């Protein structure tokens, strides 16, 4: 700033008023022009950290994640948060902790030292968490996770709506005997997607048949192992808990000489594109809205969006391909 003042022939205070566009500052047009030209010529940038310390706040938003930067699709949370933060004049500071508590505490401490506007705390899959005590010191929004007591606002996928949408896609294609392969892992996805499946059937006047609900490990092998029971059930369509289960079901159906979708329709969940877009036929599925989870987290943190329940649910849209 002193260099700019010297080049422009003005005081340091005048430079400060110009670069910060201080309201009410009495600066002549010629002096303002000289300062602006010197700023360009010298490549001057304000010291953001010094400004943060002097003003008691910053244009930084922190994002602390357990593993989402290294998962195949959930890094979209970072992308969505970054785009939304930038739109409102903020920069995202990201720390990927790989679930290491010591790294997490150090990352949050660093963000507090930089006086971040607030912190998004995210997990790579939707679940209930215990919020670190240190986050009591700063405005925090939970993304893709929630606290049981509802003390912190949370942004999560609408699992029940997603399950309902998946089932409605199969109903719209004319299927009435629809099986559901659910996960064995206790989670909001397990209960929510089952509730959505049940609600869609009931809304269509179809009585729930518990024999058509199967439990399987949420991996490719789980879907493969369930194939014989699916074929014995007489189902004409299957809603799978996730795309990996659907991929395993594809393998089992292919071995049995059963065609998708001619003989049986298959619907996935997640829209994990490395799977869904590249199996044959390409898999119709429901997307987890990772990008929008990150973007909505920033909006909630900035007070631009809210929900009375303190848990904002983001819709999971259908992605139609060729398996239904």
TrEMBL record:
Write out the GO MF terms: DNA-binding transcription factor activity; transcription cis-regulatory region binding
PROSITE patterns (alphabetical): HTH_LACI_1 (PS00356), HTH_LACI_2 (PS50932)
Do you know which InterPro entries this protein is assigned to?
A: HTH_LacI, LacI/GalR-like_sensor, Lambda_DNA-bd_dom_sf, Peripla_BP_I
Q: Where are the transmembrane segments?
A: none
State the SMART domains in the record.
HTH_LACI
Q: Does the keyword ATP-binding apply?
A: no
Q: What is this protein called?
A: Alanine racemase
Task: Give the keywords, sorted.
Answer: DNA-binding, Repressor, Transcription, Transcription regulation
Supply the source organism's classification.
Bacteria, Bacillati, Actinomycetota, Actinomycetes, Micrococcales
Q: Could you tell me which Pfam families the record lists for this protein?
A: LacI, Peripla_BP_3
Keyword Repeat found: no
HTH lacI-type domain location, by residue?
Answer: 1-55
């Amino acid at each position: 700033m002193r260099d700019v003042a010297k080049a422009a022939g003005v005081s340091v205070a005048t430079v400060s008023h110009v670069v910060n566009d201080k309201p009410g500052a009495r600066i002549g047009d010629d002096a303002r022009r000289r300062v602006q030209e010197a700023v360009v010529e010298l490549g001057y940038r304000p010291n953001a950290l010094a400004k943060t310390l002097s003003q008691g706040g910053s244009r930084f938003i922190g994002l602390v994640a357990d593993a989402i930067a290294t998962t195949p699709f959930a890094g979209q949370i970072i992308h969505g948060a970054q785009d939304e933060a930038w739109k409102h004049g903020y920069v995202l500071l990201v720390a990927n902790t790989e679930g290491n508590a010591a790294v997490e505490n150090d990352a949050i401490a660093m963000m507090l030292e930089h006086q971040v506007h607030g912190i998004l705390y995210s997990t790579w899959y939707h679940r209930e968490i215990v919020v670190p005590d240190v986050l009591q010191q700063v405005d925090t929004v939970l993304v893709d996770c929630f606290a049981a007591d509802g003390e912190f606002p949370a942004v999560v996928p609408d699992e029940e709506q997603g399950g309902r949408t998946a089932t409605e896609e199969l109903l719209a294609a004319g299927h009435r005997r629809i099986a559901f392969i659910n996960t064995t892992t206790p989670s909001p996805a397990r209960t929510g997607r089952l509730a959505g499946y049940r609600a869609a059937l009931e809304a269509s006047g179809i009585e729930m048949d518990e024999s058509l609900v199967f439990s399987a490990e949420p991996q490719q092998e789980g879907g493969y192992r369930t194939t014989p029971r699916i074929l014995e059930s007489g189902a004409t369509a299957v809603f799978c808990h996730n795309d990996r289960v659907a991929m395993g079901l594809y393998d089992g159906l292919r071995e049995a000489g059963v065609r998708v979708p001619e003989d049986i329709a298959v619907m996935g969940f997640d829209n994990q594109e490395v799977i869904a877009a590249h199996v044959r036929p390409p898999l119709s599925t429901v997307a987890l809205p990772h990008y929008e989870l990150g973007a909505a987290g920033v909006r909630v943190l900035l007070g631009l969006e809210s929900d009375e329940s303190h848990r904002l649910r983001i819709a999971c849209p259908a992605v139609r391909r060729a398996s239904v």
